[in-house]
């Protein structure tokens, strides 16, 4: 609930130029020390236009900055490289004033030209950015993607410290978009000097700069002495070691050799860790903007009947599934996770009711049930969860054949519409930014229902699409409550049509060594995963 | 001899061409769209299609393969889909670790295999001989990930003699090299045993014994150098077996070689890296075999290359 209130505060803040208060630093925080973190796999890239996985997301955040940022450990927006901004009355134009004297790691001062260059770069097809779609509200985006322009028409350099961004439609999520990694400001000369390898030679304005990367072995960040937020970061550096199995990392943490096992607690060791007081003391728990769900392809029998989809919702014993994963999650009632604004707190979801589900199936014309396929990613714990779903559905007469495959194959089957049911685990939706719209478009909207899209239920309700556009157009602060209500209504309508059976909302569990300081939320930061800029060595 | 080498090199080039075509085709028909992987879940259809065009993946198979081949002939293995770095750079940065592991593994398998083989030959027919040959069976058939995990558990976790995976010092090398080496040692011990038995039956050994030379001298000076030669020629062929093993062993031990690179690339459908590692492995195998054939006549003058 506290989280929910915090998020609501965010929305209030979002629409007003006066943002959340600055972060109150930990009074015990002190500078110095190098943190050691381990991972199994090497990092794919540190290019903010390219990097889009849970591992490099936090690293990129500490090497780069965008115009907007979040208060550490929360989902509250705050100013980043922008010192202030103004929104026009029609919500179509944003003018950002940049902080003077911000330097890139190469020593050059950052200007409005760099902001423009960075936004052009991320939307140019040649960059192949997975984040390009986030910028579709900026005027001139279609021409960029269509290849008829090489610069965004809507982004103008007013003077060296002022940039104006015009939108083609009012969009209440725009400031969030200016805070995601893809909006990071990069220096043109460094990108060009890297000759296609900027992801291995990153240069930003962030709290840390990269000083060494031995591929497959280690990556070293050192404090940026010129960082524009005075007194930050606290750590002198962060060293990442690769090639460490999660179980091995856990052993090393217990021996005091490392500070954070980057891959988290191995599922097989979870109970052991939580039962041992010494180990449990190192565990930090936090919210994730995540929902795990089952999709049902509404375009094909038998899931074209809403009764069948509702029956599935009622047949799933969510509490038991949460137990299967050692209570590392909470049962879900709706597509939005509880920490997200727009979440409908007074909605209890479909009840667990086997008899009721059987009755619905009979009404739909399947008194004896039917046989179907459930696609699932073949990495633990997903097959175990799928087996629990299989048993639950067997109880109402539905025979489920499990198709346990590698992630890309499940994505392909879901996108092509050949999968009647998909369990989203291992691919599940984690919000890119804390806004209710983020759970709709690609996974529940008509655009995502096209072949290859991520809307695996193939659910397309044009009325809801219209309602979504209307809700996102409400960038007027006076309409805040209305916008939130609109999104809540949209998700309630989704639950009525039941293209999904929401199952649980993940909780993040990580561990930190005894010498590490800083509040727990910094280690399970809803935005940055681990917030390197603010954690410290005691 | 030069004509033979030339012919073999030509055949090798054809083999590599075949390998590249088959691998490229298999990855092409894979039921997973790499563009979707790159574009991410938020991508619009327009973004997805623009990336597909950028990568040339909207072209028919033969044109895609033609482009790849044209690049290959200029030494260009392409760029990783997800890392954007040149595949050649990625492989080059990881090759030294794999080569080091191979050297370590060859040393382990020779040391273990040869000593087991010699001992078995000298103790032929006794219980010790049978025990050694039984042991060689076990090592040949034990799955590497099981052996690797067992080694880690016993020698690193329980006894603490070696680091728990990783890379950097001699101690890091021991367990992965031993894991790879144990597999090969079984083959070598059996070969060494039969080769040694053959040699020990030879007339010149009987002569040496008749001269009154000591047993150690007969074995070490006269029998071993002759018996070991055909075994040494096996090393070249061994490279192929290693290439299969490194993917597993490097992943278990967190060894930053090309096997680990391949494993990560497979999980991410990063086709240029999978192609690159496959080709480099194929080249290693082809060269290893060629080397084995070229060395053979020097070891045994009865063999002639035609």
From TrEMBL, chain A:
InterPro entries membership: Peptide/Ni-bd (IPR030678), SBP_5 (IPR039424), SBP_5_dom (IPR000914)
GO molecular function, one term: peptide transmembrane transporter activity
One GO CC annotation: outer membrane-bounded periplasmic space
GO biological process: peptide transport
Pfam family, one: SBP_bac_5
Subcellular location: Periplasm
Metal-binding listed as a keyword: no
PANTHER family: OLIGOPEPTIDE-BINDING PROTEIN APPA, PERIPLASMIC BINDING COMPONENT OF ABC TRANSPORTER
Family membership: Belongs to the bacterial solute-binding protein 5 family.
Protein name according to UniProt: Extracellular solute-binding protein family 5
UniProt organism field: Rhodobacter ferrooxidans
TrEMBL record, chain B:
Membrane-protein topology: Multi-pass membrane protein
Gene3D superfamilies: MetI-like (1.10.3720.10)
Domain ABC transmembrane type-1: 95-296
GO BP terms, alphabetized: transmembrane transport
Entry's Gene Ontology cellular component terms: plasma membrane
Bilayer-spanning residue ranges: 9-30, 99-123, 135-155, 167-188, 227-253, 273-296
Matches recorded under SUPFAM superfamilies: MetI-like
Coiled-coil annotated spans: none
Keywords linked to the UniProt accession: Cell membrane, Membrane, Transmembrane, Transmembrane helix, Transport
Compartments reported by the entry: Cell membrane
Keyword Membrane attached: yes
Protein family according to the UniProt entry: Belongs to the binding-protein-dependent transport system permease family.
UniProt protein name: Binding-protein-dependent transport systems inner membrane component
Organism of this sequence: Rhodobacter ferrooxidans
């Amino acid at each position: 609930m506290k989280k929910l209130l915090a998020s609501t505060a965010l929305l209030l803040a979002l629409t007003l130029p006066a943002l959340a208060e600055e972060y109150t630093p930990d009074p015990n925080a002190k500078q110095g020390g190098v943190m050691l973190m381990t991972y199994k796999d090497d990092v794919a890239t540190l290019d903010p236009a390219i990097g889009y996985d849970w591992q490099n997301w936090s690293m990129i955040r500490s090497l780069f900055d965008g115009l907007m940022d979040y208060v550490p450990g929360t989902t509250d927006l705050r100013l980043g490289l922008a010192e202030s901004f103004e929104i026009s009355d029609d919500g179509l134009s944003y003018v950002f004033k940049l902080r003077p004297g911000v330097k890139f790691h190469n020593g050059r001062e950052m200007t409005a030209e760099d902001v423009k260059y960075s936004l052009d770069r991320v939307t140019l097809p040649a960059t192949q950015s997975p984040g390009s779609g986030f910028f579709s509200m900026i005027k001139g985006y279609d021409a960029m993607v269509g290849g008829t322009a090489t610069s965004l028409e809507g982004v103008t350099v007013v003077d060296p410290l002022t940039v104006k961004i015009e939108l083609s439609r009012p969009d209440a999520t725009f400031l969030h978009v200016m805070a995601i990694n893809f909006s990071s400001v990069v220096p043109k000369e460094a990108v060009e000097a890297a000759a296609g390898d900027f992801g291995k030679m990153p240069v930003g304005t962030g709290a840390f700069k990269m000083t060494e990367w031995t591929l497959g072995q280690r990556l070293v960040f050192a404090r940026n002495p010129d960082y524009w937020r005075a007194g930050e970061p606290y750590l002198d550096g962060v060293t990442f070691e690769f090639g460490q199995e999660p179980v091995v990392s856990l052993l090393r943490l217990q021996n005091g050799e490392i500070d954070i096992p980057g891959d988290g607690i191995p599922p097989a060791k979870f109970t052991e860790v939580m039962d041992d007081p010494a180990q449990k003391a190192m565990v930090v728990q936090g919210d994730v903007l995540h929902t795990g769900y089952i999709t049902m392809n509404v375009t094909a029998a038998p899931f074209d009947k809403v009764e069948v989809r509702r029956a599935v919702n009622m047949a799933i014993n969510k509490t038991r599934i949460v137990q299967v994963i050692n209570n590392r999650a909470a049962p879900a009632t709706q597509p939005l996770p509880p920490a997200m604004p727009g979440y409908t707190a007074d909605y209890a979801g479909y009840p667990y009711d086997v008899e009721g589900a059987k009755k619905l199936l009979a009404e739909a014309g399947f008194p004896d049930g039917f046989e179907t396929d459930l696609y699932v990613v073949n990495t633990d714990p997903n097959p175990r969860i799928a087996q629990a779903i299989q048993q639950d559905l067997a109880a109402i007469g539905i025979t489920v054949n499990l198709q346990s495959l590698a992630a890309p194959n499940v994505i392909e089957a879901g996108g092509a519409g050949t999968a009647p049911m998909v369990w989203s685990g291992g691919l599940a939706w984690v919000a890119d930014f804390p806004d209710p719209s983020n759970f709709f478009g690609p996974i529940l909207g008509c655009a995502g229902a096209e072949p290859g899209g991520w809307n695996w239920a193939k659910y397309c309700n044009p009325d809801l699409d219209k309602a979504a556009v209307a809700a996102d157009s409400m960038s007027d602060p006076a309409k805040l409550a209305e916008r939130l209500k609109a999104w809540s209504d949209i998700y309630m309508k989704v639950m009525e049509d039941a293209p999904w059976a929401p199952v649980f909302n993940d909780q993040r569990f990580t561990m930190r060594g005894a010498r590490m300081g800083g509040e727990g939320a910094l280690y399970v930061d809803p935005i940055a995963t681990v917030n390197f800029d603010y954690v410290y060595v005691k | 001899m030069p004509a033979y080498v030339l012919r073999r090199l030509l055949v090798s080039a054809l083999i590599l061409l075949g390998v590249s075509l088959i691998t490229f085709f298999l990855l092409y028909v894979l039921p997973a769209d790499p563009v979707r992987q790159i574009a991410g879940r938020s991508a619009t259809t327009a973004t997805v299609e623009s990336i597909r065009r950028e990568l040339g993946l909207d072209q028919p198979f033969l044109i895609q393969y033609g482009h790849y081949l044209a690049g290959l002939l200029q030494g260009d293995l392409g760029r990783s889909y997800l890392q954007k770095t040149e595949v050649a750079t990625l492989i080059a940065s990881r090759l030294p670790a794999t080569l080091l592991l191979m050297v370590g593994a060859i040393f382990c398998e020779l040391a273990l295999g040869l000593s087991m083989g010699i001992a078995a030959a000298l103790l032929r027919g006794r219980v010790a001989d049978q025990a050694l040959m039984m042991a060689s069976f076990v090592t040949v058939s034990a799955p590497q990930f099981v052996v690797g995990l067992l080694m880690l558990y016993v020698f690193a976790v329980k006894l603490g003699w070696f680091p728990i995976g990783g890379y950097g010092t001699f101690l890091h090398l021991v367990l992965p090299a031993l894991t790879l080496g144990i597999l090969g040692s079984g083959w070598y011990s059996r070969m060494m045993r039969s080769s040694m038995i053959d040699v020990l039956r030879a007339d010149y050994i009987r002569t040496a014994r008749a001269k009154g030379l000591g047993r150690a001298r007969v074995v070490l000076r006269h029998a071993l150098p002759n018996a070991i030669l055909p075994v040494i020629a096996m090393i070249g062929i061994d490279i192929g077996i290693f290439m299969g093993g490194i993917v597993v062993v490097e992943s278990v031990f967190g060894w930053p070689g090309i096997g680990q690179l391949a494993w990560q690339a497979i999980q991410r459908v990063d086709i240029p890296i999978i192609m690159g590692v496959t080709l480099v492995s194929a080249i290693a195998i082809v060269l290893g075999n060629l080397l084995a054939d070229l060395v053979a006549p020097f070891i045994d003058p009865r063999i002639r290359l035609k």
